[in-house]
Amino acid sequence: MAIIVEGRVITFLWMIITFAVMYYYMAIKKDKDYMIRTLPALSAIPEAVGRAAEMGRPVFWSPGMSGPLNDSAQGPQVLASISILEYVTEECAKAGVEITAIMPLPDAIPLVEETMRTAYLNQGKPEAFNPDQIIFIAEQSPYLSGVLGYFQRAKPASNILVGGFYYEAVVIGEAGNAIGAMQIGGTNNTHQMPFMVATCDYVLLAEELFAAGAAISQDPDMLGSIKGEDMVKILLMAIIGLGFLLGAAGITVIADLLGV
Amino acid sequence: MSALSKLANVDSRVFYWILFIALMVPFLSPIGFPITIAENTRDLYEGITDDEVEEGDVWIMNFGYGVSAWPECHPSVTVCTKALFREGAKIIFMGPHYDVELTYNKIHDTVRDDFVDKVYGEDYVFLGYITGGESAIAQLASNIRSVYPVDHFGTPLDELSMMQGVNTHEDIAGVLSSDTGDYGVHFMTQWQAAYGSKLAEIGIAMNGSTDLPRWQAGNYFGLSIGSRGGAELEILIGELGEATTAMDSISVSHLLLIFAVILGNIGMVVQRRSS
Amino acid sequence: MSQILRREAVYAFTGIITILMILEYFFWPTPQIWADTIRTWAIIVFNISLGLGAIRLLMQQSMNVQKRRENWQYSAMLLSLFVVMLLTGFAGYFATGLQTSNGIYDWLFINIYTPLGATLYPITGFYIFSAAYRAFRARNVDAALMLIAGCFVMLKNAPVGEAIWIGFATIGNWFQFTGQIPGMRTFSIVGAFGLMAYGFRALLGKERGFYAGGE
Amino acid sequence: MAYPTAALDVIGLWIGWVLMLMIYSYPLYKENPAFRTAEHMFIGVTLAITIITNFSNVMKMCVTPLMQGNILMIVPLVLGLMIFSMLIPEYQWVSRYPIGLLVGTAFGLGIRGTIKPNLQDAIIDTITAPTSGGAMAWLNFLYVAVGLICSIMYFMLTFEHKGMLKAPTRIGRLFIMVGLGAYFGNTVLFRFTMLTGRAQFFLQVLKLIPM
């Protein structure tokens, strides 16, 4: 392995194994449809829309401050959130419930509009979609004020707070609690997960957010790569388990190998 | 609704007023609870003092925080700047926030005595604002002058004596990164993991939970967590400052919050029982 | 031809750059000039792209004023302060290379931007208090565990905790140095896998959501 | 820092104090014109600072070297300006190339940089037995290893949490809750410290405590 830079051999092997396993499940075993495990937060969406229908109040969706679509950390969260928006909008169109989207992300507006329009179309109600259902408010504080003002006025029955949230998760989550809304949260930003767990009824933690997006979009590449990830996680757990037992016995071969 | 169950629904503004006033009281009559030093903080201080730092070593100090996080990060950065200067190290100041110049001016104020006998261009330089995330920090490791052709004041780096022969990660003895955002993590993935560079995080407390496993795994040689870390560093250097002053307010506000949490939970239990 | 330019060529372009960054790391011990060039270009493009958000915000605020939308006066004030700050800043920049060399810009920077910047973000201190009070409740085992861990870490961080009872610091230190490690380390590991999965799909040209308007 | 003496500085200090109260009138009272004024002032000032700071950075890194003969710098300049085609619907596709450069660089550097610290170093630390600290150290060693395996198992996304997996994944979620709780506790310290700075500023301007 002299051609691989010293000290980066295991890193290289790890990357190649991960990519190979993912490719296997994305491309070669394409015929088999992989299913994402039950995600309580996803299963709760019909309940959230049903609640809104009963109470005659709207459903609210927002992806949080996140960041531009081309941000490698925040972009994927916005895309997963928009997949979930499609599912929520279809449920709302089916139940005749109003859905409002407030978002601070300029570059994602075309995608959100396109997604909601398609969702209404899929339910045979293209005329029910009004672009004004999407409210764009830039910058964190105005966005927060806009959302809290909307909560005071419309008192949504259910809030879908999924995406790359920052500290607005605390404020919106708590304000949603105060008006008694049922809340489904989800983020891959570790720093906001505690607040979502504290203020939401259901939460998609970390990768569950992307899995939910894949479960809805049924994108075979996404599903295949998530299946591949799971397989590599099994390998990882085996290494940790074996390494732990050997480590406890004073044998450091695995730790030494990992450091090469 | 019984009085106890009302506890579960006190108007938030009541707490906000109490909190804001409670934060002020200790400034007017300080209490001064004892502070023990955490192992991670001691590792940081010992990693930038005595034989860990040689005369003339060039260090990077990344101001990865803006004016809003001054109370959280600046006391620790102040102590670490003093410690490095007293060991004869040279410091490159930089940062990814628009107001990095204000933070640079503030370090001159809080480290005034140590700056007296230091000369700009020989003992320290200020490269100024940087943006571009992981790409920028990766490129900094490879070629500082491609990211910073000139310093903040427009002086070409080649005209600054301390920057002679300093252009890649190999020429940097160590990096101290103080972050509200991700630049410290970028230094970890693109400097420490890639080249084994000596790196420590002067972090905000919120990131303490993600930074601690990294200090334990050896990615950071030391770690300061929030204003509490600042107070510990002030004790280690023997010059109490802003962080120590703030600790009393932190104590009062934390007790208040725990009291409110208990209140809320009692209210919830009572509400459950009555319904 | 134009369809290829709009799609396949873009995905290939992205994939090639991803691969080049990876190859440089594993096959060359020191950074390479061609990779330096790509990174430097990416930094410059990133700098320029930040202008996009600014333009969109200005367009929105100008529309508010033009159409006399609700609260348009605030937008008018925002725009006028923006113009003053921009002109004085550029005056300083083009005179000396440093925008803060202009007295008006510097004064606004120190006396308007700094206090507001130092005030707006800490507003979360209020909200975390009511969030903790309202939502930090032991509704179930999960919430109870989160509550217990949170309270002991708070009592360890605040010097008064140790002053009341040394046990608070001991238990709090356990949660800080051991208790939270599995959970936090899992997020780092899972995050690394997520990044590799997304990067791999982008590398294969199968991740298209990044581009304006998606697919 | 001493209390300012120059008139302009004293005025500036008091303006900052009033602006702070205008902002905190929102949580302490309710959303109101004073808050909105201060907030819009901040957005306007920040917007100008953003444009000027980035403009000067592009000048330093790209335009000046270009004018000094580095012809290649024309490429990032053009690529960067291409991103503004996002504002013109029919030419939006042109912006995909600069975005491709940003996304490709971000993922390439991200992938190569994340594996060692987040996977290798993390596992090495998890499986390295303690060399001191007695029984408690060994208990903690067991706790972290078991906790890590169960927590990772929780994030298996294509296997139902049933049968053999039900117990370990349930335990895994509890380990994650402990982590999030500690995270919450640390976040409280961060948020309160920032607010403490404002409480201190409030008193300093009133000269009740020294600057």
Sum this structure up briefly.
The complex is a heterotetramer of chains A (260), B (275), C (215) and D (211). Chain C is mainly alpha-helical and 215 residues long. In chain C, 81% of the residues lie in helices and 0% in strands.
What is the fold's blueprint, element by element?
The complex is a heterotetramer of chains A (260), B (275), C (215) and D (211).
Chain A: H1 9-28, H2 40-43, H3 45-55, E1 59-62, H4 75-95, E2 99-103, H5 109-122, E3 134-136, H6 140-154, E4 158-162, H7 168-178, E5 182-187, H8 193-199, E6 202-205, H9 208-217, H10 220-248, H11 253-258
Parallel strand pairs in A: 1-2, 1-4, 2-3, 4-5, 5-6
Helix pairs in contact in A: 1-10, 3-4, 4-5, 4-9, 6-7
Chain B: H1 3-6, H2 12-28, H3 39-47, E1 58-64, H4 70-86, E2 90-95, H5 100-110, H6 112-115, E3 124-129, H7 133-142, H8 144-147, E4 174-179, H9 183-195, E5 199-203, H10 208-216, E6 222-225, H11 226-237, H12 242-274
Helix pairs in contact in B: 2-12, 4-11, 7-9, 11-12
Chain D: H1 7-28, H2 33-67, H3 74-82, H4 96-127, H5 134-154, H6 166-205
Helix pairs in contact in D: 1-2, 1-6, 5-6
Quickly list its features:
heterotetramer, A: 260 residues, alpha/beta, Rossmann fold, six-stranded parallel β-sheet, D: 211 residues, mainly alpha, 75% helix
CATH fold naming of the largest domain in chain A:
Rossmann fold
Structural class of chain D: mainly alpha
Order of helices and strands of chain A: HHHEHEHEHEHEHEHHH
Cα gyration radius of chain A (Å): 21 Å
Provide the helix percentage of chain D: over 70%
- The number of helical runs of chain D is 6
Structural account:
The complex is a heterotetramer of chains A (260), B (275), C (215) and D (211). In chain A, 57% of the residues lie in helices and 10% in strands. With 260 residues, chain A is of the alpha/beta class. Chain A folds into two domains: 1-28 and 232-260, no CATH class; 40-214, Rossmann fold, CATH 3.40.50. A six-stranded parallel sheet of chain A has the order 3-2-1-4-5-6, with helices on both faces. The longest helix of chain A is centred in the last third of the chain and has 29 residues, at 220-248. Chain A is elongated and about 65 Å long. In chain B, 52% of the residues lie in helices and 12% in strands. Chain B has 275 residues and is α/β, with parallel strands linked by helices. A six-stranded parallel sheet of chain B has the order 3-2-1-4-5-6, with helices on both faces. The mean pLDDT of chain C is 90. Chain C has helices spanning 2-6, 8-27, 33-66, 72-96, 103-120, 124-135, 141-157, 159-164, 166-179, 181-203. In chain C, helix 3 packs across helix 4. Chain C contains ten helices and no strands. Chain C is 81% helix and 0% strand. Chain D is mainly α. Chain D has a domain at 130-211. Chain D has helices spanning 7-28, 33-67, 74-82, 96-127, 134-154, 166-205. In chain D, helix 1 crosses helix 6 and helix 5 crosses helix 6. The mean pLDDT of chain D is 93. The chains are: A alpha/beta (260), B alpha/beta (275), C mainly alpha (215), D mainly alpha (211). At the C-D interface, helix 2, helix 3, helix 4, helix 5 and helix 6 of C face helix 1, helix 2, helix 3, helix 4 and helix 5 of D.
